[in-house]
Amino acid sequence: MANIPSELLSHQQKVCRLYKRAVRCVEDWFHKTHERRYQIALLRERFDKNKDIKDLKYAKYLLKEGEKEYFSKIHYQPITFAESITGGAYGRECYTPDWALDYWHPLEKAMYPKYFARREQMKDEYLKWYFETYPEEKKKIDNH
Length: 144
Known about the structure:
Keywords: Acetylation, Electron transport, Membrane, Mitochondrion, Mitochondrion inner membrane, Phosphoprotein, Respiratory chain, Transport
Number of domains: 2
Low-confidence stretches: none
Main location: mitochondrion
Membrane topology: Peripheral membrane protein
Family: Belongs to the complex I LYR family.
Number of strands: 0
Structural class: mainly alpha
Domain Complex 1 LYR protein: 13-69
């Protein structure tokens, strides 16, 4: 089921996506800015040369040949964006639970006095609400 298309793409969208992939491929091969920009300009010229073709059969043929050429020139170790699925930083952001702030040193808490004063007030309000909503929990704690 991996190859079932979730949407239908127009020919124009396919060409645009091929162009973007080809530009990324050029970026993989050419690391100096002036070389990369020159190669991308040549690539754009090749795409622009065929943009006014009205014969859809020939346009599809050119697209197929372009994809073949792209896959033959694809880099063996493409550059990936750090936050993309294949990137090195994907999924690194971690959730820090609120209780971790309870273990801050008092000198650290003193740097943000308003925040921690409001936080303590909110914790007290939450405990009050919780034990009013669930009085049986208060009894369990008192019995232990």
